[in-house]
Amino acid sequence: MASVSVANVSRCVGCRTCEVICSFTHEGECRPALSKIRVHREPFTGETRIEISNDCDLCGGKMECVRWCPVGVLKLQKEELSDS
Amino acid sequence: MIANELYGWVGKILRIDLSSGKVSEEPTMERARRFIGGMGLGTKIMWDEIKPEVAPFDPENRLLLLTGPLTGTLAPTSGRMEICTKAPAVDPPSCTRSGLGGAFGPELKFAGYDGIIIQGKAEKPVLLVIEDGNVKIEDANHLWGKDTYITQKEILHEYGEDFKTVCIGPAGENLVDFAAIVSETGYTAAKSGMGAVMGSKNVKAVAVKGSGGVKIARRKEFRDVCWHVRRLIVNHPVRKWTLGGPIESSVAFLDKYRTKNNACFNCPVSCRGWIEMSGMDSGEIMCLAYYYLWLGAGDREAWEGKLLSDKLGLCQFTLYDMIRWLKECYELGIITEKDTEIPWSKIGTSEFINVLLSKIAYREGFGDALAKGASKAAQSIGPEAVELYKAYFPARNQSEHYSVRAYPVILMQWATDNRDPIIDAHNWTSLVYWAGMFWPKSQKGALTSEQTRARAREAFGTEKAADAFSYEAKAQTAIVIQNTSRLKNSLVLCDWRFPITTSPNNPPDYRGDPDADRRLYCAATGDEVDKEEWMKMGERIFNLERAIMAREGRRKKNDTVEDYYFRVPEEKLAAFDLKLASPPVADLKKFEQMRDEYYKLRGANLETGVPTKEKLEELELSDVAIELERLGII
Fold first, then answer.
1. The whole model's pTM is what?
2. Cβ atoms of residues B610 and B633 within 8 Å
3. Total domains present in chain A
4. Which residues of A are less than 8 Å from B219 in CB distance?
5. Which of B49, B271, B335, B603 has its CA 20 to 30 A from that of B306?
6. Is residue A82 part of a domain?
7. Tens digit of each residue's pLDDT (9 = 90 or more) over B227-252
């Protein structure tokens, strides 16, 4: 199955637009706590973590978080074909 | 609007009375329908609750932490908030505001509050902890005395890494006139002494966390406008300069030490450079955070100066001009190293910045005089120092921000506001000064003079706004700037990108969309407001500010800048200012004509500068008119 994955976390600016558009699309309100993608930027080290929940449905193919990310941190990861 | 369903706003204002320990809630919409949020709402609360006789550090003063209906939403740059209070760094003290970026504002809304009114004074240092409607006033003795980095780290360690924080450093605790409120490593509400007011109430920090959300009235429309706005401002050139402007020293510094950019909540611009330097703390840099670099410091010393000012909680903007002014005093022998015990001959070194900032924050020796603010310090040093002080502080103890002498619209703004008026109203400078005049012409989005005129006409209603050095039509331009900046700071959107007067992403004419903020507001809240009514809302907020100023004693004679600016030509324009054929000096006669034109257009009394009864009634501020009449002001 395809999924949203993190292409380059070191470029993440920590804006959390992905959280906002995710919750807005799925829950109808701007509510990061219910977003299927969560970003945590540690204020003093700058280290950023991005977690994507297993129930991400790619917005039915629209992949809003990938589209709205201003710095291209997120990408679509296609399933790798097995050798068999 | 459906009575029990709110969109944009979350509906409640939290009131914390530190003297009694009482915590209560009140409905946002009692005031927000007419005053929106942020700065507008703050102005209304200050009119209602901060009487003119209240001094900044009186328990009766309020410290207002306010979001707006777009805060925390999909609206690009929705991470900002406004802090309002009767501020000590404005001389004389005045009810005013300061903006704050980051993510505290959105988190406050997710916790269920559009704002917090802090009043009274705690007996001992406290930390306010707010989590999803649950409010605790916690003991903060263990945090008192600690710097802003350590304070926030300890709070995050104790309460959880998802909390968002604002706090003060030792400067705020010690009531330093220009102490800032600090969030994370570089979001600061500064230049007006908000940190000292927080310190006077014994509030060390506020920590907030929420799991709620912000509802939107017309979702499809809102999403479309948000995408439209995003397209206009994403990858903006300020991203590479991190608001240092195309200044060589800042750009060289960034090239060496920036590992990435950071953004405020939901901002597609990400104008903040993340700096990592071996053996030192990391943090964000932008704009005046380069202050020590601009004063000639080496890279490491510049970063040390930046970290130190944030950790102690001191305003970098004020420090920058204070140091330039005192350096001149030192060079002319007005102050000495011996008397002040500060090594003025070593500006640029680690030693100098450590000694100076420490003495100010802890109010030691000469540092105590400086901690009272530049205007009072100048008076205590003597008349020569006062004269030199004026070169850096055009009015009301606020350090200069863009040339008051060269640009009449800047002068008009300075003359009629109560603090540095440009800091949250870059409308004209972003368009005419930067994109039109000072961006390298090779920069995408740099405007030709014809384009600048066309964009100026859209933004200010007159293309004469693009004639930077002429007094013509600058009263009107200033009025549009003031009204529209009240609106963006009430929503609350970022001053650097709103209103969108031009876009580097829109060749060939680089047209923006100055009406976008209204459309965001309407779609988010469900309020139907046409362009005319929208401008009236901005005008209402500004006139209420002027009514507060009038109640505090402000009159026409105060609607000016220091006489210095009318008699002494500007010899040293800032590094990025135009090299003019002759040094600029403000023209008193033309200024007075411009000011009269301004009063007429504003509907203010020509003799006093105070809004007239008719104007206040037209703006649905009849209660304000009645009060000003009762006081004999109108």
1. 0.97
2. yes
3. 1
4. 24, 28
5. B335
6. no
7. 999 999 999 988 888 766 667 888 89
